[in-house]
Structure formats: structure tokens, C-alpha cells
Fold this protein.
Amino acid sequence: MTRARDLADSADKDIAGTLTLDGLTVDGGNIKLDGNYPTGTNNVALGDAALDNGSLTGGYNTAIGSSALSDATSGNSNIAVGFQTLRYATTAAGNVSVGVNAMRDNTSGGSNIAVGQDALRSNTTASYNTAVGYQAGYSTTTGTRNVVMGRGAMHSNSTGSYNVGLGYEALVSNTTASENTAVGYTSLYTNTTGTQNVAVGKDTLFDNTTGSYNTALGMEALANNTTAD
């Protein structure tokens, strides 16, 4: 068994067997397990190709999982946990991403939170989104300031902003519409471009597609409305 004090006479050692560390000092605050050692300051990487960009100047990033934050250059203060989380982020900062492929395509969007497999997967440059659940906000690319919670909630949204979708597949078909609030199982399920609707309750405004400025409260309220305002 080799102890840390036995290595003091050399900067580099190849060790076979068990290594026990009584203490660990890391120069510059960077830590890497598996793959290339990260540049920048106070970065922590665990996993093959995690924080693997040799041109990284950003600091205070934590990447755990294969290819997590592997393209990061000047991004700061990101937390990526899971396979390919924040995979293509280069300058993105202040993001929290947990789950396989969560926020995978994000490049420069900041201050987003994605929790769940494929949550906010397609996000590229949008900021201030919160998505929790399997494939929640999956297709969002540039839509901003959305709050999504529930499996598949707002799955198809691309550029819509200021939406709230809470519940299983709430606002699942929304594409470009903004300022909708859907609370409940499949509420505003079919909505694509209708805007400024409020739907609270199971299946509320379920068939609405392009109708706007509607308020529906209670299970299946205005469920068959399609285009009326």
C-alpha cells in the first residue's frame, strides 16, 4: 500500500495497487478523474471527456458523467451531472443540469435549471428556463423564462416564452406561443400558438389550438374549445 507522503519526492508516479491519501492538495483547485486534466480554475470533472476542452478558461464548473460539459470554453459556474449533460455548452454560465442528455445542446444559454432525462435537451441559447421531469421542455431552443414541471410537459415548445406548464404533458404541443399558464394533467394539451390562456385542472382547454385569452378553471373546463378567444 502506498501513502501520499511516500510520493513527496516525485511530481509524477505510476502506481499499481491501492493508493491511500491522508490528505489531498490540488493546485489551482482543479480536480480530474478519468480523461484529460481540466484547465481553468476550481473545476471538478469526473468521467471520460468531462470538461475535456483543452482551451477551457472558465472556472467553478462541476461535471460528473461521460462527456458532461466536454466542450466548455469560457463558461463559468455550471453544474452538469449525467451522461452528455451540457455536452455542447461553450460559453454558457450558471446552469444546473441533472440527468442523461439534460440540456445537451445548450451552447450559450445561462441560468437554466434542467432536472430529468432529456429535460431542456434542445435548448441552445435560451436563458432563465426551469424544467423538471422526463423530457420536460425537450424541444425548447430559444424560448426563455419558461417554468415546466412534469413528464413531457411543454415537450414541443421551441421559441415560446413566459409559459408555465405544471403537470403530466401540460402544454405538450405548444410550439411558439407565449404567456400561457397550464396547471393540471394534460391541460392545454393541444395548444400550439394560442397565447395568454390560463388553464387550471385536468384536461382544461384540452383541444385548444390557436385560441387566446381564455380562462378555464376546473376539470375539463373549456375542454373542446379549439380556436375561440
In short: Residues 2 and 88 are 39 Å apart (CA to CA). The first strand starts at residue 2 and ends at 3.
